[in-house]
Amino acid sequence: MTVIHFVVLACAVAAFAPRSRRWPAALPIAAVAVAVLFVLTGGRVSRTVVTLMGAPSITTAALLADLALRRSFGTSLLTSRERSTMLWFLAAAALAIYPAELGFVTIVDPYRVGFLAGTPLVLAALGVFLLFRRDYRTAAVALLALVALDLRLLPSVNAFDYVVDPLGGIVAVGWAALRAIKAAASVLRAPKAASREPVIPETPWAAPAAPGADAPAAR
Amino acid sequence: MPQDRSRRLFTSIAALALVAAAVPAVVRSHRPTSSPQFVMPARAGASDTRPAYSSEFLPATGAESVHAATLSQLANGDLIAAWYGGSDEAAGDVMIYSARCDHDSGRWSSPAVLETRAHTEKALGLHVKSVGNPVLFADSHGVTLFYVSILFGGWSGSSISMKTSADGVHWSPPRSVYTSPFMNVGMLVRGRPLRYSDGTVALPIYHELLRKWSAVARIDESGHVIDIVRIADSRPLIQPWIVPFTGKRAVALLRWSAPLPGCVTLADSGDAGRNWSQTFGTRLVQRDSAVAGALLRDGSLLAIYNNSAWDRRDLSMARSTDGGIHWSRPHPLERDTNPDQSVRREYSYPYVFQTADGLYHVVYTWQRTRIRHLTFNDSWVFHDAVLGKPSA
Predict the structure, then answer these.
(1) Which domains does chain B possess?
(2) How many angstroms separate the CA of residue B24 from the nearest CA in chain A?
């Protein structure tokens, strides 16, 4: 049982615990306390839970922490864009690594790249890219993953194990598939919607567009 | 403007922090000897001229079913063997037993329990259903026991555990060997590990969750897996057994693990296992049973396998003088044609180890009730009517 196991278990319990309208944080906090006590006793069920959790990554821990904070305290750790970035990253990494790991792809082994000395530098470069994109909190997650790798908070020394794990990866792939299906559906619906709109005849006396009309609305 | 400046400063500091955080991992992953060689065993007793062959049973444990024996030699010259036993394989009552053979008297000690399911479960903090497949690895650094812990389901729900000892008597608590990113499940161990020149260990491993494949894990001094090299093949080839010819050149013998008969399959490496060739078949017919190999004094390759397309009643040896392309006719070690089915007529899971005196020791499962131990030398192989003619 590592520190990350504790964090992930607490966040998962807090995120999915029932809540009352009057004190939304009370029940999740109580559930976390019970879960931590339950794990500390080291019983058979607790060992089974830890076995099924595998080795959760920092990315999954951050996403679960965000979910727990949003549901219990109404405050979020990540913006919607940062959350999407992390979920897309998790989905892509899971699809790259796990089919090969399970033996469905035999010609390449992407997981082996995670053992190379240069891989942490690539992760750092990714974090710097996120900084320049102003995804500060996603970059902070990359930094946390690198620090966890330095401290060997997980039993693995493979850099990929700190940024992707099967449970987070499966959820992210499901989320990405839903997003892709929704996007495809909206593309398929678009011509029908357009055909329903009234056709406005081009008029030579139409007023010119106001300056800056194409600019996105201020947030 | 001051906001922009402070943002730029923050971004620069954060970027530096990211790069700085990557540096320790990079430094740790970088190894001065990036291409180590296999440590070849010292070959004593090369001048033996008289063929020597003997067989015995290892002391009984009283367990209903025993299987998967392993053998190694401690620094003081004693032999140490381990195997698992219980009501059946993968059962909750399975324990890993160990016995030692005194190098002076040649007598085996009574078997002692080396590891249990409950002890592993407590030490790992995980749910463990059973244990099995012990693999001993001893050298001047001490002795390490690698074994399989079944976490859930059958063998495919396993992970690899290890424990170490300086003297073979006092052992460290078990710990997980992290070999799979998929919840560290699906990996097993069976083949003999080898030492690399930089102190790391080459541990042959194989995967059974959903699809079967083989690999060699490189393990550092602290027990962390620092590389995993696959023996790429889409066919179900498992339980790699590595036989190094030189420090760089080696061959891996693989078990054909499909319902239909196949053959002992090989893969080559010319860079001490950092890359493996395409696999190639041999004329050694088998079906889903373990194979072991050894390098003889003259550089020829010895394979010990179940020479049968259907069962494990015939355990044989074959010899190749050209790295596994051509083979001698099989020499049977066990051949059981008794129609009586009241006992399990199985002779399987050979494990071969060469001791410092040049003798080869083979341990294998005998009717699932005992572990048999054979000892022979190079001369016995060279003078054998069948194995002495390797290209027949």
Answers:
(1) 57-383 (2.120.10.10)
(2) 6
Contact criterion met (CB < 8 Å) for A107 and B178: no
Res. A218 pLDDT band, cuts 50 70 90: very low
Q: For A106-131, what is each residue's pLDDT tens digit?
A: 889 999 999 999 999 999 999 999 99
Q: Facing residues of A26 across strands?
A: none
The ipTM (two decimal places) reads: 0.91
Cα-Cα-Cα-Cα dihedral of B181, B183, B187, B189, to 10°? Answer: 100
Q: Identify whether the C-beta of residue B131 lies closer than 8 Å to the C-beta of residue B147.
A: yes
Residue of B22, B224, B229 lying closest to A120 (CB–CB): B22
What is the C-alpha to C-alpha distance for residues A122 and A163, in angstroms, rounded to an integer?
12
pLDDT band at B343 (very low <50, low <70, confident <90, very high): confident
Q: State pLDDT tens for residues A53-110.
A: 888 999 999 999 999 889 888 889 999 999 999 999 999 999 999 999 999 998 899 9
- Find residue B243's DSSP bridge partners: B251
Strand, coil or helix: B240: strand
Nearest C-alpha in B relative to A133? B11
Mutation target to probe the A interface, by most A beta carbons within 10 A, among B29, B31, B219 is B29
CA B140/CA B72 separation, integer angstroms: 12
- Amino acid letter, residue A49: V
The angle, 0 to 180 degrees and rounded to 10, between the axes of the packed helices A44-53 and A3-16 is 100
- CB nearest B181 (choices: A44, A97, A107): A97
Q: How far apart are CA B91 and CA B154, in angstroms?
A: 10
Cβ within 8 Å of residue B281, ≥6 positions away: B262, B263, B264, B265, B266
Q: Cβ contact (<8 Å) for B126 and A47?
A: yes
Contacts of B125 in chain A (CB under 8 A): 1, 42, 47, 50
B186 touches chain A (CB under 8 A): yes
Q: Length of chain A in residues, anyone? A: 219
pTM summary value? 0.91
A140 CB neighbours in chain B (<8 A) are 14
B228 has a chain A CB within 8 A of its CB: yes
CA angle B387, B390, B391 (to 5 degrees): 145
**What is the rounded CA–CA span in Å between residue A41 and residue B365?**
41
Residues in contact with A166: Cβ distance below 8 Å, sequence separation at least 6, in sequence order: A54, A94, A98, B181, B182, B183
Closest CA to B216 of B276, B261, B156, B157: B276
Q: Where are the domains of chain A?
A: 3-186
State pLDDT tens for residues A171-180: 999 999 999 9
